[in-house]
Amino acid sequence: MNLAAKYTAFIKQHAADLGFDHCGIAKAVQLDDDARRLEQWLHKGMHGSMHYMENHFDKRIDPRKLVDNARSVITLLLNYYPAQQQQPEAPKISKYAYGQDYHEVIKGKLNTLLARMQEAFGAVSGRGFVDSAPVLERSWAQRSGLGWLGKNGNLIHKQAGSFFFIATLITDLALEYDSPVGDYCGSCTRCLDACPTEALVAPGVVDGSRCISYFTIELKELLIPEKMQGRFDNWMFGCDVCQDVCPWNRFSKPNQTIEFAPIPEILNFSTKDWEELTEEEFKKIFRRSPMKRSKYAGIRRNLRFING
């Protein structure tokens, strides 16, 4: 077994040991096609008020600008599909936010994986990223054979659907690379047809400025545009409609990550419970939850909007 094959086998085995569900590896190169698509998307203003998307363009499209002498991009998927669902009439929360903040959970696993690589291989440079850095993680997941980009813009794994967090580890190690897989959406348009705000403007193109997740999480203004009134389908934090209707998610299985066990209040709160929640209680219950990103004021705003 050559060195690249030995390193690759080690990384994939330890990724599985740390609880990652899937691991794929691609060669670190500049993403020219993605650069053109991203430029057009930004030019059309589909990022809304998410101005951070305009920053570090060169780093987004070239991992070698994030890690010196980068040679490989390791992509890891971690399932977050919950075993239990919310009360049917309650304000809806995206499934990714049922448990602890995934940034903290995954960052720890990435640091451990890199430490094990350094212990086994010697001087290895690398950086791990989880959704909060200029990395086009879905493109790298696609390049490394972990799935294809669905018409809803999400990565879809043929055996496991799309309810996954995507993490990236860029390293200067030369490894064995996986091959991309085909697109299996076919003629299906269920996600395009189901989007409550018509944010899926074309197959694979999400107008972020129309997305319910954008309005309920990213938008920091006091008011949600009136033209969206009555179109949120009771979503208070995030939105899963385009994933819930996807036929490939019939293969989703409950996750095995203990930190992603649902916060009891998320499963059990009624509309009345949410309305009576104080800021102090919110900070205590959701202190380790992704919901803290919207802050108490944001949750109150969203609740008023969907109940209006």
Automatic annotation (TrEMBL):
Subcellular location per the Swiss-Prot or TrEMBL entry: Cytoplasm
Enzyme class: oxidoreductase
Protein residues bound to tRNA: K220
GO molecular function, one term: epoxyqueuosine reductase activity
Catalysis performed (reactions): epoxyqueuosine(34) in tRNA + AH2 = queuosine(34) in tRNA + A + H2O
The EC number(s) this enzyme carries: 1.17.99.6
UniProt-annotated binding residues for [4Fe-4S] cluster 1: C185, C188, C191, C246
Binding site for cob(II)alamin: R60, D131, N152, L155, I166, S213, C239, D240
Listed pathway(s): tRNA modification; tRNA-queuosine biosynthesis
4Fe-4S ferredoxin-type domain boundaries: 173-205
InterPro entries the UniProt entry points to: 4Fe4S_Fe-S-bd, 4Fe4S_Fe_S_CS, QueG, QueG_DUF1730
Coiled-coil residue windows: none
Binding sites annotated in the UniProt record for [4Fe-4S] cluster 2: C195, C211, C239, C242
UniProt-listed PANTHER family: EPOXYQUEUOSINE REDUCTASE
Role according to the record: Catalyzes the conversion of epoxyqueuosine (oQ) to queuosine (Q), which is a hypermodified base found in the wobble positions of tRNA(Asp), tRNA(Asn), tRNA(His) and tRNA(Tyr).
NCBIfam families: tRNA epoxyqueuosine(34) reductase QueG
Family designation: Belongs to the QueG family.
Oligomeric form and interacting partners: Monomer.
Record-given protein name: Epoxyqueuosine reductase
Organism annotation: Chitinophaga filiformis
